[in-house]
Batch of 3 targets.
Target 1
Amino acid sequence: MIADRPHPLDLPLVTGGAVSTERADAARNRQLLLAAAKTLIDNHGAAAVTMDAVAREAGVGKGTVFRRFGSRNGLMMALLDHSESALQQAFLSGPEPLGPGAPPLERLIAYGRTRLKMTVDHLDILLEAGADNPDRLSHPVWAVSTQHVQLLLRDLGYPGHLEVVANAVQAPLDAMAVRHLLDVVGLSREQIADDWETMVRLLLSGLG
């Protein structure tokens, strides 16, 4: 179990800290380019995201894209970072049931469903970014997610090793698992979410 429970606001945010110090026009350019990249992914998949394509979609010169992100990999990482930061802010200080104030089981269900939607929405990027990397569970994003789940499990009174059950609860939300469930098993995102919720509620029945 977690020996010293941190206050939720002590959880580290995975964020590109430079954004808050950008000039207003630079920040607008960044958002414009991220929106253009997301449009390309939504319409054509992650493979369609090239620096040229993003520049055309955003109506700017290719040099602007390179200046903002340095490389295609930098752009893809910025997209993930932007979405991850928004999700973390939501569960740390956003409205219920995802944010503080709701019962821990309802927060956990809301978190899992929101995490799953984000995984599906960004699946191509996550897979390109190394979702099959054996060290991915040590990545700060997964570590923060795991700690959040552990805190909710502790609130529910779950006994034993929280590290094990927290990873088990999150396993179906991982990009590799989601790809298998969508493409091989043939489930929809809604079916995955409903089955995941049933699993969690059965696992935690009688607690809290």
Target 2
Amino acid sequence: MSHDTLLHRLVRPAMRPLARTPITPNQLTTMRLLTGLAAATGFAFGGGWRVAGSGLFLVSLLLDRADGELARLSGKMSAGGYRYDLTCDCIATVATFIGLGIGLLGELGPVAIALGAVAGASVVAVFYQINVLKVAGTSGPGLDGRTLADADDAMVGLPVLIWLGLSKLALVLAGTATPIIVILLVLRERLRTRRA
């Protein structure tokens, strides 16, 4: 994963002054988890709560970038912090999609919860492949040698679609496209391993 995407560059200026304070990256990670869970709750309630949840989800995504930036700027990087970050990311992501599925239960029926569960599990599988297995070639589009976005950054599309009134489309896309991405990453890694 890149540490210099547009989202990283967006939060970096705010993290520079925090690097000289007692605030720790793990505290930001905890805030990421709490805002992610609050967003999932808003998604589950639906209606206007879903719109508010989208704002909280965006804050949660920015905090996810901010914790790593603070760790790098303050020299407080650790294997434990990295594992805590990945765990919180996974919990927040799964909760987000399940919450969205619950919120859309009345419109899509039980398939909404299934789509939410599949989307959440698939995003965790992508996180695992990229962050734990270090699957090769997973950096996103770039410009002048710099990565503009990575796989995690695609999550920004969720609140945007919800704000546009396309919650059902967001859930269907996440529940169908994300498993396909998992399969493609697995196949790509197997091909790479066979060639090596």
Target 3
Amino acid sequence: MTGQFTLVGLLLLLSRVQCISWYMEPAPRAQKCLKEEIHGNVLVVGEYEVSEVPGQKVDFVVKDSKNHILAQKDDVQHGKMAKFTFVTEAYDVFEVCFTSITLHGQRGIQQEVNLSIKKGIEAKSYEGLLLGEAAKLKPIEVELKRLEDLSEAIVQDFVRMRKSEEEMKDTNESTNSRVLFFSIFSMVCLLSLATWQVFYLRRFFRAKKLIE
């Protein structure tokens, strides 16, 4: 029983679905951007919907930190769900932006935006395994395939966490070594300065014939 709860907990932790909604403020050109860090070689599938407002349009774009455009749509069709898909090449920060533009100098009103993003195993579709003529699988076999992929994704996450832990450990050890060397260097400098001051003051007092 405990093993079942552990497996369910891991599946919940691995969930890659993110849903968010907000209202775009009316302005001649208002923009709302969301940023997120994503690992390399990860499938990203998103859906978005913009409420319809006469005299206003919304542009959509997904970019990485180098301003490479991964998905783009000008003048999004209002009231209908639109999709975008891309695969990350390397670990990076990705930005999803919606830009609301008021046409013909109108005052404009708020527009509701709904965004749903799936990453990794959650973004993968298994419908082809059920509907494909070349590989017809039973629903239970498809579910087992999904769980197999999910287990592999969990292992990969643990490997990344382990690698990140080792990198942090190496950084910590390197920082401690540098702090130690700096402390020793500072002590040597202070002792050298104190010794020089003693000899300087001794020569000064001898020159003034205050001491023999």
